[in-house]
Design a protein that fits this description.
Blueprint: H1 21-37, H2 43-73, H3 79-82, H4 87-118, E1 121-123, H5 131-145, E2 150-154, E3 168-175, E4 184-189, H6 192-195, E5 198-201, E6 207-211, H7 212-218, H8 220-223, E7 231-241, H9 255-266, E8 271-277, H10 282-292, E9 299-303, H11 342-348, E10 351-355, H12 361-372, E11 376-383, H13 391-401, E12 405-410, H14 418-430, E13 434-436, E14 443-444, E15 448-454, E16 460-467, E17 479-486, H15 489-503, E18 515-517, H16 521-537, E19 543-548, H17 554-566, E20 569-574, E21 591-596, E22 601-602, E23 606-609, E24 616-620, H18 626-630, E25 632-638, H19 642-656, E26 662-664, E27 672-673, H20 683-692
Parallel strand pairs: 1-6, 8-9, 11-12, 12-13, 14-25, 17-22, 19-20, 20-21
Antiparallel strand pairs: 2-4, 3-4, 3-7, 5-6, 7-8, 10-17, 11-15, 15-16, 16-17, 18-25, 19-23, 21-26, 23-24, 24-25, 26-27
Helix pairs in contact: 1-2, 1-4, 2-4, 12-13, 16-17, 19-20
Length: about 700
């Protein structure tokens, strides 16, 4: 669905003008690592950012690295998808970048451990236990850990055991002083998902914390008491698999059945990364690599004593709340309160919710009202990622039990949430909810609710929520997202048509106001950029500002380069991937780009085109990526309300003025903090104050 770009000057597809998305993604994860390094961030929050860095890297290898590996195995060239480099070349570069970042992460981790010591919090290993702590560690292991421990003896005459990529393992070597006896090798899976990764030990004065890995190390002789050995060693290894789903085409199976089968296959996906403790004996690592059958495409990365540092996301405060962020109480919207019906308010005016600053409970109340209002006849919603204990689901079930016709469009291919969404789908189906599983070949990534109510005059009226983020109570406290509540018929009629399309995919409607992927979004965005180009060429003011997560669609990028060449002022706040290279002479002098990382994850997407002073402004579920534009159902909705348009302009102005947490995007991955002579502005805190003062 690529569209022809009007010619101005030739733009080549090369790294001079287009940074490979995966290199750019690693530049983004380096910004996460900066937060772990930043001494202005509270100490335990820095530790948690190190966990986020590690978790991001895990998902990168499971998805992107695995995809590039597949392309390399098929001898594909890469082209647009990889920024003009071959898969094998890119894999080599990615591995080198990751190794460099891992070394930096280890250095930061060591510094953070020293910082904890300065606050009387010690991370100790099995060799540092006091007699009292040894008794505690033994009892804790026997009562809480040992029932969950899987110990796997390795033998040449047995198949190598299946390794889970969510887990880490202790690779065990049992040796005898008698050199004629071969060593015994074993693996122990660390059950951190069942008992937690960090154990707080008893002790006076200082707080002592121990990794579960080391607690198990302390109890190794108890585990292997039936074996004969003189020495025992344990080193951590980690194994990552390809997480792409291959969905079969068996027409005799439902889509739900195909998804269940594909998830089973994911557990045995091809290896893409192996990380190990550099202290591991050479014969042991040689045996593991041989038995795991790792090939030239696999990323083999030496590391430190501890892996799965993603668990640091849940590092305990250890009695030191001052080492974490101060609480920011969520705010109430000035037009919404418990004394008024949300639906009645929306009937009179548009409302913009801004999470996590506003409380997510407004969306729950919106659905609860719909469940209890006898005049509401239908509720429709698209669901992509849900909280573990979802009040959204309970409100929908409540509505169904009260006789409301409830339709849920459930996306079963929400990556890493597939199993959870299958469980939710089965629960909803049991409660009589009408389920729709999206569109063949497309992911439904839109975030919309439609409530249909019969008014006092007997006519039906639609009420809509359309947003940039998931209906997820947990992430709503961490991710910045907008949700527009409206009864404006220009929007609600077209949202209603969208649900008709999702239920009957052959009915595709033209829209006048909404920009829908994969139908009109690309064409409309390209035309709006073209309009700004024409304004600039005619000597008029021309500008574009965007707030997005990712920018890597080559067609859009080249159109933005054309806009820069014409003199259009382009300002972009991007959280993650940015394949566009801003500020390059002869290419993008008029494009400025910053990235903001702070205590909240910047997730909202907003597009604004000056349009000769009659701004076109949209909030969207879509980023500027080919997958969002061409392979997903996304909703980009115009903002008509003048008050909300002013709010969004003000919000962007605050973001753009950030000189504390903003980094300059330069295409080199330098991630230089943006500084100037102005008073310090930390955008997220300034936005909180802005909303608090409304």
């Amino acid at each position: 669905m690529q569209h022809t770009i009007p010619k101005r000057k030739k733009v080549y597809l090369s790294e001079d003008v287009y940074l490979p998305r995966d290199i750019s993604w690693l530049h983004f994860n380096a910004r996460v690592l900066q937060e772990a390094e930043d001494k202005r961030v509270p100490l335990i929050e820095r530790i948690r950012f190190l966990g986020i860095f590690s978790n991001n890297l895990d998902e990168f290898f499971k998805v992107r690295y695995a995809t590039i590996k597949r392309m390399g195995q098929l001898a594909q060239t890469g082209g647009r998808e990889l920024g003009g480099v071959t898969p094998v070349e890119l894999l080599t570069r990615l591995t080198e970048l990751v190794k460099s970042q891992q070394e930096r992460a280890q250095t930061i981790y060591d510094e953070l451990v020293e910082g904890l010591n300065a606050h009387d919090i010690r991370i100790i290993d099995e060799k540092q236990l006091t007699p009292t702590q040894k008794k505690f560690a033994r009892k804790y292991f026997i009562e809480k850990v040992s029932p969950s421990v899987f110990t796997l003896i390795l033998s040449d005459d047995r198949p190598f055991p299946h390794l889970r990529d969510k887990s880490i393992y202790l690779s065990i070597k049992l040796s005898s002083k008698d050199k004629s006896k071969k060593p015994t090798f074993a693996l122990i899976e660390i059950p951190s998902d069942l008992v937690g990764r960090f154990i707080q030990l008893p002790g006076r004065g200082k707080r002592n914390i121990m990794y579960l890995d080391d607690l198990i190390r302390f109890n190794l002789r108890y585990i292997f008491f039936t074996h004969s050995f003189d020495e025992i060693s344990a080193h951590t290894i980690k194994f990552t698999r390809d997480a792409e789903l291959d969905i079969e085409s068996d027409v005799s199976k439902s889509f739900l059945e195909k998804m269940v089968d594909s998830l089973k296959d994911r557990r045995t996906g091809d290896p893409v990364r192996f990380v190990y403790d550099t202290e591991i004996p050479s014969d042991e690592i040689k045996m593991l690599l041989n038995r795991l059958d790792l090939d030239n495409f696999d990323s083999i990365i030496p590391g430190g004593r501890y892996h799965n540092k993603k668990d640091l996301i849940d590092f305990p405060a250890a009695g030191h709340p001052e080492l974490t962020y101060d609480a920011l109480p969520q705010l109430y919207h000035p037009d919404l309160n418990l004394e008024k019906s949300i639906i009645d308010v929306i009937a009179q005016k548009d409302i913009l919710l801004f999470f996590p600053y506003h409380t997510f409970s407004y969306l729950i109340r919106f659905l609860r009202e719909a469940a209890l209002d006898p005049r509401v006849e239908e509720v429709k919603i698209t669901l992509y990622r849900l909280a573990n204990n979802s009040r959204i689901i309970s409100a929908l079930i409540n509505a169904a039990k009260n006789g409301v016709k409830v339709t849920v469009v459930m996306e079963l291919q929400a990556r890493f949430d597939e199993e959870a969404n299958i469980r939710w789908a089965e629960k909803l189906e049991d409660e009589g909810v009408n389920l729709v599983f999206g569109v063949s070949g497309l992911k439904v990534h839109s975030k919309v609710i439609l409530v249909r109510r019969r008014e006092a005059n007997g006519k039906f009226k639609n009420y809509v929520s359309v947003g940039t983020g998931n209906f997820n109570e947990k992430t709503s406290k961490l991710y910045t997202d907008y949700h527009l509540l409206t009864s404006d018929e220009r929007i609600t009629k077209e949202i209603s048509k969208l649900f008709t399309f999702l239920a009957a995919n052959y009915k595709v409607y033209k829209n006048k106001y909404l920009l829908l992927s994969p139908f009109s979004f690309r064409k409309e965005i390209m035309q709006k950029i073209e309009r700004e180009i024409k304004h600039a060429e005619n000597g008029k003011k021309a500008s574009i500002w965007m707030k997005i997560n990712s920018l890597c669609d080559t067609g859009i990028i080249q159109q933005l380069y054309r806009a820069s060449d014409a003199g259009v002022d382009v300002r972009i706040v991007v959280r993650g991937i940015c394949s566009l290279i801003p500020g390059k002479p002869g290419l993008s002098e008029n494009i400025q780009c910053i990235s903001i990382l702070d205590r909240f994850l910047e997730h909202s997407r907003v597009y604004c085109f000056y349009n000769g002073g009659k701004e076109d402004m949209y909030i969207s579920s879509a980023d500027l990526m080919a997958r969002n534009i061409d392979y997903r159902v996304e909703v980009t909705t115009p903002i008509f309300d003048a008050e909300i348009r002013k709010q969004l302009n003000d919000h962007f102005a605050i973001l753009w003025s950030d000189n504390v947490k903003a980094r300059c995007i330069d295409g080199e991955g330098n991630n230089r903090y943006r500084t100037n002579d102005q008073p310090p502005v930390r955008a997220q805190m300034a936005l909180y104050e802005y909303l608090k003062n409304e």
